[in-house]
Amino acid sequence: xxxxxxxxxxxVTEKGKYVExxxxxxxxxxxxxxxxxxxxxxxxxxIYFQGTGAADDSGLPNDRFFAVRPEGSVSTLKxxxxxxxxxxxxxxxxxxxxxxGLTGELFFGEGSRLTVL
Amino acid sequence: QQQVKQxxxxxxxxxxxxxxxxxxxxxxxxxxxxxxxxxxxxGPALLIAIRPDVSEKKEGRFTISFNKSAKxxxxxxxxxxxxxxxxxxxxxxxxxxxxxKLIWGLGTSLAVNP
Lengths: 117, 114
Prior knowledge:
The complex is a heterodimer of chains A (117) and B (114). In chain A, 0% of the residues lie in helices and 50% in strands. Chain A has strands at residues 5-7, 10-13, 19-24, 31-37, 44-50, 53-56, 65-68, 75-79, 88-95, 98-99, 102-103, 107-108, 112-116. Chain B is an all-beta fold. In chain B, the strands form two sheets. In chain B, strands 2, 4, 5, 9, 10 and 11 form a six-stranded mixed β-sheet that branches. A five-stranded antiparallel β-sheet of chain B has the order 1-3-8-7-6, with no helix packed on it. The model of chain B has no long low-confidence stretch (mean pLDDT 93). At the A-B interface, strand 5 and strand 9 of A face strand 5 and strand 10 of B.
C-alpha cells in the first residue's frame, strides 16, 4: 500500500483480555515507531524499531506491553491483561530514517482505537 | 514534566486571518522541531519542520519562527482557510543514537470560521 496501514481500526475488548494491534509500514522504511494517543493529548512514544530489533523500548508503560517486528517490516503491538487505562488510539509510524539527506519524516497510520470495557 | 509546552489549547480564527500557535521547550539538546497537523480520525501528518540553525522557514502559507535563545518556536498560518481546521502539534527531538523519538506538545485545536 501507499501509506502505513493499521489493523484493526477499532477494537473493543474486556478488561483482562489479550490484544494484538498490527502495523504494516511503508515499503522500504526501516524505522518503525509505536505511539499512544489519549483524548486531548499529543502522541506518547512507546517503542522504536530499526529493522527487526527494538532499538528503544523505554516508552512501554509496563511489562504487559510488548512489540515485535520479526522480519523488519510488519510490526505487532501486544497488550496482555488489558486494563481500562489502556484505552487510547495506538498510532504506528514509519520512516526512512536520518542522515545522508534523509529528514526522518514520520509517516503515520490512522491508528487503532482500543477501548477496554 | 511537560518538555514541550504548547499554547493556546484552542484557537478560533476568521477565514483569511492569521493563526499563531506557540511552543516552548526546555531541553537545549533538541535539534529538530516539526509541526504536525491532525484531522479527526486520522494520524498526524508532517506540516513543516525546522532546525535551530535557521530562524525562520516558510512553506506556502505556513511559517515556522524559531527563537533559540528564548527556546521558543511558533507556527504562523497565513490566510487561514476552513480546510485548515484541525489539531496542530508541535514536537521536538534530539539525536540519540539513531532514534529520533518525538516529544509532543498537547496540541492546539484550530477552527477557522468561513
